[in-house]
Amino acid sequence: MQRDSLTVGRVIGDVLDPFTRSVPLRVTYNSREVTNGCEFKPSAVAEQPRVEVGGTDLRIFYTLIMVDPDAPSPSEPTLREYLHWLVTDIPATTEASFGQEFVCYERPRPQLGIHRYVVALFQQLGRETVYAPGWRQNFNTRDFAELYNLGSPVAALYFNCQRESGSGGRRMIRKDKQASSRIIEPQGFLMTTVGEQANYCRHLRKLSLDAQNDGFHLTADRQKGY
């Protein structure tokens, strides 16, 4: 029997518990569809993807989470998980653009090794029942789902990404002791209200635009990409 690709890629275990897919999920970057384990260069995922959610009832809403469990490096994932994107209140049969973006999309910029980027979809209990976390570093998908009674994911995908100049290679995984994924002390920026989150998103987009005009790039985490 062929093993599930999420299990082979250790997404099941590192980020998610075993689950049964029940909703179609399609993620595309510039018309290229994400399939489990596929490879993307950072330049190919610089802009947020198009995300299409299946289902049949517009009254059902979903939360989309995108994380990097290998930050800052697969061998020392001390920032596991790094939150790259969070969208809530996505109606069934629509796209992520119809939802509420609580944590704006931050482009993957892996510096060490091959990173996995996991996109998971959860069904909400109702509209406006999920709220923004206060940090990106050491985010925990399981804890977040438990906090808002999201249950198991209904769909998930992941892709691999490494530095633009990287090619081939293996993900170096530390086997002696994995960094804890439980949140003890929030690190990184802290936003306590939805208004502050929205202001941050606008600020980040302005920084990115200014940086491109100046010929260099800034990221949300003080120029350290994950």
Largest sheet: 6 strands, mixed
* Number of beta strands: 9
Helix content: 10-25%
Mean of pLDDT? 83
Structural class: alpha+beta
Low-confidence stretches: 174-194, 207-223
What is the tally of helical segments?
A: 4
What's the SSE pattern? HHEEEEEEEEHEH
From the spread of the alpha carbons, the general shape counts as globular
Name the beta content range: 15-25%
Descriptive overview:
By secondary structure, the chain is α+β, with helices and mostly antiparallel strands. Helices cover 16% and strands 23% of the residues. The protein has a six-stranded mixed β-sheet. Strands 2-1-4 form a three-stranded antiparallel β-sheet, with no helix packed on it. Strand 6 and strand 7 form a beta hairpin. The longest helix is centred in the C-terminal third of the chain and has 21 residues. It comes from Musa troglodytarum. Belongs to the phosphatidylethanolamine-binding protein family.
What keyword list fits this structure?
single chain; 226 residues; alpha+beta; six-stranded mixed β-sheet; three-stranded antiparallel β-sheet; globular; PEBP; Phosphatidylethanolamine-bd_CS; Protein HEADING DATE
